[in-house]
Amino acid sequence: MAKVIHPEEKLETIEVGDLLPRVMRMKKEGMRLSQACAAFIDEKFELSYSFADDVTYQYTTLRLVIEPDTEVPSITDIVPPAVFYENEMKELFGVKIRMISVDYQDKLYRIKEKQPFGPDAEGGRTNG
Q1: What is the pTM of this model?
Q2: Is the distance from CB of 13 to CB of 65 less than 8 angstroms?
């Protein structure tokens, strides 16, 4: 019978320059990317990259809080499945992600409104 493990959930707010080294460390530690998402809150983007350890059930989320015009490096060269998450962040929110291994050029979704959840979306949100 498997040992019952009571993991901690960790949330680490990091700087853009720390993203790639931290993702590389997570991968080397055997953690897998379980989700990545964006939110536009208080005129800033919050990008969350969550990693799970399938042995200990430890869950760690790396969070970036950035200005709308900040460029973020893609993690797809380290974690190829991130391609869909990053294209979603770019297309739905307008996050500036550079060097996505497969960039769908805003054609991942069939939507009429450009970046419906980003700073310039209809509904009163503005950039500045």
Answers
A1: 0.84
A2: yes
